[in-house]
């Protein structure tokens, strides 16, 4: 699963390499609008006649990509690092399948680490019930819930949450690296 995702991550990093140099921040309204200069991107890469890339850039998915990844100040991730810093590595690996596979595996490992930051915590599987366990009569019925106690616990929790500061996300925002200009990829 992670290796397939790493392949697509690498593909889109290659496809959109240098896209940040074609972003324009328009500050006419109270909230800035991010515009992607498609003609400049295609022209600098010499791909004006490329039908596939033109359709990708005109699609709604790419418009969402630009609005999400366009702001210059936001939380960076693996894709941003790949687009900004791995340009030369991707170029060098172009004709060498073993190096490409090695890089894909490294990316897959990073994706896995991002999603599982605490690998030492193992989830214990619940064992299957033994054969005939449903016939046992010594199992005690589930106890009745004390509604008064439930209400007390809810009130305590609400009182604690009202006095606590609001929860904030731990993502650290940073300046997104621009990476090399588009003209470098011709």
UniProtKB/TrEMBL annotation:
Biological process according to GO: regulation of Rab protein signal transduction
InterPro entries, per the entry: dDENN_dom, DENN_Domain_GEFs, Tripartite_DENN
Highest taxon above the source species: Eukaryota
Residues covered by the UDENN domain: 1-76
One MF annotation (Gene Ontology) recorded for this entry: guanyl-nucleotide exchange factor activity
Name this protein carries in UniProt: MTMRD protein
Native source organism of the sequence: Toxostoma redivivum (California thrasher)
A GO CC annotation given for this chain: cytoplasmic vesicle
PROSITE patterns in the cross-refs: DENN
């Amino acid at each position: 699963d992670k290796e397939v995702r790493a392949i697509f991550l690498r593909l889109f990093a290659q496809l959109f390499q240098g896209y940040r140099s074609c972003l324009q921040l328009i500050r006419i309204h109270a909230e800035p609008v991010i515009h992607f200069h498609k003609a400049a991107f295609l022209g600098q890469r010499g791909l004006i006649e490329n039908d596939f890339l033109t359709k990708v850039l005109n699609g709604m998915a790419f418009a969402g990509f630009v609005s999400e990844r366009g702001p210059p100040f936001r939380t960076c991730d693996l894709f941003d690092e790949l687009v900004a810093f791995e340009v030369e590595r991707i170029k060098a690996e172009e004709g060498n399948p073993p190096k490409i596979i090695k890089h894909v595996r490294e990316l897959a490992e990073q994706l896995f680490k991002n999603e599982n930051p605490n690998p030492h915590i193992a989830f214990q599987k619940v064992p299957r019930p033994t054969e005939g366990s449903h016939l046992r009569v010594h199992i005690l019925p589930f106890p009745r819930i004390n509604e008064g106690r439930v209400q007390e616990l809810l009130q305590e929790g609400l009182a604690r949450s009202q006095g606590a500061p609001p929860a904030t996300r731990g993502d650290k925002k940073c300046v997104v690296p621009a990476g090399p200009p588009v003209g470098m990829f011709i």
